[in-house]
Amino acid sequence: MVAFAFLDSGTGGIPYLQRLLEKKPDASCIYVGDTANFPYGEKTHEQIVKCVLEIAKKIIEKFNPKVFIVACNTMSVNALDVLREVFPATQFVGTVPAIKLASSVSKKRKIGLLATQSTVDNPYNVDLKNHFASDCELVLRADPNLISFIEHESFTATKEESIKAVMPAINFFYENGCDTIILGCTHFLNLAELFQEAADNVSGGTLKIVDSREGVTNRALSIFDSLNQNAADSKSEHEQKKSRLYVTGLSKAKDQNEYDVICNRYHLEWGGII
Q1: Cα 27 from Cα 207, distance rounded (Å)
Q2: pLDDT higher than threshold 70 for residue 129
């Protein structure tokens, strides 16, 4: 058993794992990147649901997590409700675009959403906007090339290469009059600080970058604490001691080197292919 399981299409959701461990350093966690089915952003709704259900079943049977974080916006907006129906005994926390947070930050009432094509096209964004940012204009941009760069190159890329990769998105939103950009794909969070640095350089500090890390991790910890509030000992003797990274496949020979770099950088054990 582990306390928390994280699932993403690749390595994008690792910043959520890191934020949770900052708040709860002794938490036992596993992280699974469904790299065999990457990228998710170009798949149909039906394909996404099928892939997510298959890998979620493996994770639940193998690790029995107390809280299951779907650390992927595309997975969450397409499959979260289905996951809760199929696995009712599991506590799921999803990630959705931080439109509510962006609305509280934006002064010009013009917000940019940077995400996968699937997330951009999903009507759930309209519901979020109508509920939390009805007076704001939402400017959408899908960026599959940037997502691919982050998954396959960013952890070994130079800072200059990473800045070059994010600049098209920054320039697009700035030229369209946005003063707030939502990182609506978890992959982008691996470069969140660099996004803000690039935005500052372009806008003189008026263009803000927001994401859902804080809200998601607080929700996951709240559920975990409520599950353990009546337990004499909230840490099972069967829980692993160190967080582990798993993937569902290696698509390129250099992927293993990439994952070794990630494990060293974030102090994770390499779990291998699940």
Answers
A1: 35
A2: yes
